[in-house]
Design goal:
The chain has about 210 residues and is an alpha/beta fold.
């Protein structure tokens, strides 16, 4: 006697496919929503954090002193940090626009082993690269990406975010660019909102939120 095979109607097959597509799209949407939500949360302040206010004198090491003939722009960067990678195009745009007026240095903040040449080649940078966590401490940096501007008299002018937008597309909140313009025009009255000065991004030294 032949076995009776259960035949699934075509309409039922279509229904199952539609359900799986809906579940898959919901999961993908939820993943992106969760990551976007996480990004908009401030980076937790480390225990025993010592805040460094604008106007503070920053003690520069011998390497950075060699670049202090112009105002100094320090880009704190973690290759494993998605926020840092999203921010790279914005940082390069600032470098291309202001590299004649500022000296730019990339400060890589990660426990993974890289060389300066690795970072320059991987991200297409023709900028000095350093690996020194003490610089982050001296400037009050505890997340990436962060921008720091220091006058030629070693005074901290700005420590904060590049942009309120994750992809740095909101020109109205281009905080790092506004800080550069303020520094170059000797604007001592420039004020920044909490969105500029409250750290967002990946915790140091590991890429965690």
């Amino acid at each position: 006697m032949p076995c009776n095979k259960q035949v699934i109607p075509k309409n039922m097959k279509k229904f199952i496919v539609y359900v799986w597509l809906i579940v898959l799209l919901t999961a993908i949407s939820g993943f992106f929503w969760y990551n976007s939500w996480i990004y908009h949360l401030p980076t937790p302040v480390p225990a025993h954090y010592h805040a460094v206010q604008a106007g503070s004198i920053i003690k520069l090491n011998n390497t950075l002193l060699a670049y202090n003939n112009k105002p100094l722009f320090l880009h704190f960067f973690n290759p494993e940090c998605p926020c840092s990678r999203f921010n790279m195009a914005s940082f390069k745009a600032l470098y291309n626009q202001y590299n004649g007026q500022l000296n730019f240095v990339v400060i890589v903040m990660t426990e993974k082993k890289y060389t300066g040449a690795d970072i320059q080649q991987k991200f297409g940078l023709d900028i000095p690269v350093m690996f020194d966590g003490s610089i982050a401490t001296a400037c009050g940096v505890y997340s990436t990406p962060q921008a720091v501007l220091i006058n030629t008299n070693h005074t901290l002018y700005y420590r904060g975010n590049y942009n309120k937008s994750r992809y740095c597309t909101d020109e109205k909140t281009s905080f790092a660019k506004q800080a550069i313009i303020g520094l170059l025009t000797n604007n001592t009255r420039l004020k920044f909102s909490r969105f500029a000065l409250t750290a967002y991004g990946c915790r140091l030294p590991n890429c965690t939120k």
